[in-house]
Amino acid sequence: MTSPLRLGIAGLGTVGTGVVRIVQDTADLLSARTGRRIEITAISARSRGKDRGVDLSAYAWEDDPVALARRDDVDLFVELMGGSDGPAKAATEAALSAGKPVVTANKAMLALHGQALAELAEANGAPLRYEAAVAGGIPVVKALTEGLAGNVITRVSGVMNGTCNYILTRMEHSGLPYEEIFAEAEGLGFLEADPTLDVGGIDAGHKLAILSAIAFGTQVDFDGVQLQGIERVSIDDIHRARDMGYRIKLLGEARRTDAGIEQSMRPTLVPADSPLGQLEGGTNMVVIEGDAVGQIVLRGAGAGEGPTASAVMSDVIDIARGFTLPTFGQPASSLAPAKRANAVTACAHYVRLMLRDEPGALARVATVLGQAGISIDRMRQYDHPGADAPVLIVTHPCAPVDLSDALSGVVATGVVRGDPVALQIQTP
Ligand code: NDP
Ligand code: HSE
After folding, report:
1. Residue 133 Cα: closest atom of ligand 2
2. Is the model's pTM score more than 0.90?
3. What pLDDT, on the 0 to 100 scale, is given for residue 427?
4. N- or C-end of the chain: fewer Cβ atoms within 10 A?
5. Which residues contact 371 (CB under 8 A, 6 or more apart)?
6. 90 and 149: one domain?
7. In sequence order, which residues have a C-beta less than 8 Å from that of residue 187 and are 6 or more positions away?
């Protein structure tokens, strides 16, 4: 048997302790599968004294993750601290610069610095792997870089943030408003330390940008993701969508268009009877479309100790086996800057607005939309006790960018209160 693979793990929170557990509990299985012992030699976290529910007494401790990454008895650096910059990035760079492989679950770091890190990894001949960074336990990075490598990928879509799917499905089942379910999710510890990462669509946008880079052979372009969070989705929106046969999901879509790569992460009405429409709670789903394979649907736990540690271990095992791949599935130097095509693909939209209930108000809205080339498919005004009338409009397919401009014109008429809410209806 070859020499052991010695891990240095920085970050001993939910994911880090999960990885320690797998290494400790399945040592024989791991060596049978890889032909090497996989051992932990050194660890790092913020607080040394914290009880983490696993025995860490055999491992050397480093306060500084960068020092951990540089230790001579660490062959593979496992970064599980999080944060796009700071110690996570510094320690990852230190390991790669020393020619050591890195495994990370850090989608924020990869979404913002993926290209530079991939170049550093390749310059030093050190693999950088991140299966856990996207959709937790679902092996979607492997699916794209390996299983579907013979396809021209045309579209990657899906639900990639479990917290948002939990909030939206709980609202629907309980009939309670967003604010109450948000507080419930916070109480259950589901939300990131900065909740806007989840509910603002940023976390899911990071994941989509990573998948998009692999799928289309472009540099990661997180700034090119059109982001819209779930904060303005109301319980009424959920009920009205359901009445029309839809459910609302925070849906990510990256597609190859004639104009370039289009990436969006936003609340979207999807058919209730589709696989995405049936997704409940914190589960994730990724749908991949390739020219040869057709459509692939992957579904599973997108977060949590076991699922995420499972994904980290798949990368560790690949490295133990000596299997390597360029970071985004092809050499970093061959990744083209992404040509952005923002909000060009036409789709139907659900638009909710509060209209001043006075003569001619509805006509002015219809006129502005018509002048902008937005065609109304369905329209309904709901019962209302006060002076403002809730109006729901479903448009015929139009480019989101055109609708957005048209709604600015609607607001400028002065007949609506507040900003309209516009949600896309999924294009098949
Ligand atoms: P946690 O907050 O549970 O754990 C973070 C760990 O990093 C803690 O042990 C913390 O130390 C340590 N840490 C933080 N800052 C420093 C620092 N400056 N120096 C040394 N150690 C530090 O995070 P998770 O385990 O949930 O997440 C880890 C990574 O995995 C993140 O990138 C996250 O986005 C990603 N991820 C997480 C998923 C999940 O389900 N939790 C799913 C998919 C990806 P201490 O414990 O002492 O405070
Ligand atoms: N906050 C993320 C989610 C954790 O809710 O899906 C996993 O990345």
Report:
1. 8
2. yes
3. 78
4. C
5. 409
6. no
7. none
